[in-house]
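Example (one chain per record):
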Amino acid sequence: MGKLIFAINPGSTSTKIALFEDDKMLIKEELSYDAADISKYKRAIDQLEMRKQSILDFLEKHQIDPKKFDIIVARGGSLPPIEGGAYRVDDYMVDVLTYAPLAQHVSNLACMIGKEIGDQYNIPVIIYDAPGSDEFIPEAKMTGLPEVEIIPVSHVLNTRKVARDTAKKLGKEYEKCRFIVAHLGGGISINAHCEGRIIDSVYDDMGPMSPQRAGRIPTRFMAKLCYSGKYTYDEMKRKLIGQGGVIAYLGTQDLRKVTAMVESGDELAKKVFYTMAYQIAKGIGELAPVLQGKIDRIILTGGGAHGKLLTDLISERVSFLAPVEIVPGEKEMEALAEGGLRVLIGIEQPKTFAVVPVDFNSREEFEAWAAEQKAASK
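Predicted structure:
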């Protein structure tokens, strides 16, 4: 029997779980939660027990014995920037995500759920390719303001997985390839993969508009909007992330509906859709100099890559740079399992997370503060 790998990947209103034997998926499930129930929780962390119990209920219902798991692999949460790859989940990581995450996001719960199950059954638990994986070259981090440095965030799990798969398809090692990978989802990120590392990216607030993101807005207009008195800070954030992009123009973020609108002759839908495709192509082109024009493949992935009209429009503009590979959908669960297998068979050794959270000067300072928070919450 092969290695049993259990993967946990929480999303806004669901938690994806999957069980693999080596690289073969045995079962995959998306545990859904009612949006009204989710809205009762003030913070993502407050959903921990509810989400953990839903996983345990599923395992019991399907007579899956957690004691047989060789490893649990959890989606990485909103940690400070760390190198990509595998990290063992320990108390320090959980404390950072509990008391000082970069953002209140349900992905923070993955390692907590994994650790509680792992501790109960003595199973190793890791995260793999966290969203904030930082492999950037120095030039990719600096902005025009000393107060602002780019903090890498992107669809690392899926883009690295499809890049590895594409390298294999080409008969090459991922560590010897150069790819530009565009993840086309509700938010869009575009990554430059250079010989095994993601060295730069165009994230969803730095590049093209997407189904629910405004994308890059010139700073002179942003400053005017922010100081117009029309919006609070939270309202402005929602306007840019969640209510911006395609949905702001057309009232829907469903690209299937938008494509149907375009094909039925809706001129506004066509203008918005074609502009988004144009901006995605422009973002891909922006990363070409990062790889010095030496690009093995341009890869289009994510849910948006299911749409032929969108991928055709992008490909028409960028195929002169490199051949375009279309990999529709996302492979996050497969990516988590692959990371777990790499650890189990010794290809990769899990690292220890030791980064000090933002706003703290040392690990000791943070741990003392976290201890105070724990005591106050009891």
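Caption: The CA atoms of residues 142 and 149 lie 5 Å apart.
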